[in-house]
Design a protein that fits this description.
This protein is an alpha/beta fold. It is built from 11 helices and 16 strands. The structure holds zinc ion (ZN) (2 copies).
Length: 361
Amino acid sequence: MSPTGKVAYLSESKSMEINEYQLPTPAQDDVLTEIVQANVCGSELHIWRGEHPHIDEGVLGHEALCRVIETGGEVYDNAGMKLEVDDLVVPAYFATCGECVQCGQGNHQYCQNAYKYWSRGPDEWPHFHGTFGSHYYIHSDQYVYKVPDSVDIAAAAAANCALSQVLFGLNQIEVSLGDTVVIQGAGGLGLNATAVATERGAETIVVDGVRDRLNRAQEFGANHTIDITEYETIEDRVDRVQALTDGQGADAAVEVTGIPATIDEGFRLLGRGGRYLVMGNIIPGKKATIDPGRAVRKSVSVTTTMRYPPWILNEALDFLVKFGDVYPFSELIDAEYCLANVQQALQDSANREVARATLTP
Ligand SMILES: [Zn+2]
Ligand SMILES: [Zn+2]
């Protein structure tokens, strides 16, 4: 009998089921992998709760570390390394089709077919469309990179989401030596942003309302933290940032809270010519009041990002080779569940009983 594997899929809102299928033979240039570990990301929770604008069913999971078990012919990763059985790899979780208008213009992060595999129904071949499973099927139009031996397994498993996203976002607002950067939110994206901004020579001010998260931010390099239970009003926080920046305001700010109201606050924390990266508010339909005149009078520029050019994933692995030991990336995972308990992992994550859950087959 041919070997089988399992995938977890969303059958209806907040309800995961697991199916078993025969393992597919990879088509030419595709790669069949087994999952080493797959993290429960905030995006998965949005889908699970039925809040995602495009995905409402199908196989879930996108952040993972995978091990190659079969390749469709001779396959190379996107850094030109030949993939062999047992290699550890990380895939970009989205496709870059190379055929749509955006891919044609070199804007791979905007590929119109980005989610053509993720969230397909489990019955559809090759079944293993998401990383919540025992196996994951990587198509030839997904970027994939071999993971260097020195990179910690838990850190590698998150490289294709938060770290890559942050590296690209901070590129977009050109965070560099001498900048003071306010990071609004000390969740996974915020901690990664703090480490990356620090390594680029910036001074960082992290704002959050949970003391444990702010302590963690310090471990990720935060020079200053602002606890909103202590600095309760926006005016208090503006004053604090002014005090920390010699009255200038921040050079750059990064919104990774997912809370619409924080955007107007970001405008106020920035100084003249400030660069603002809005990256945490990913769910359409939520509204906030902003004071555009205040932003215009300071000539604030606003950048938003969704996904990243897939080659940034290789930069994320380089970052982990160089700085993976400097910051406690591996400690960001605080709970491990076996695949059979995927529903519990999502439930506990949604209830914030765990900060970052990971699934193992
Ligand atoms: Zn993610
Ligand atoms: Zn495309």
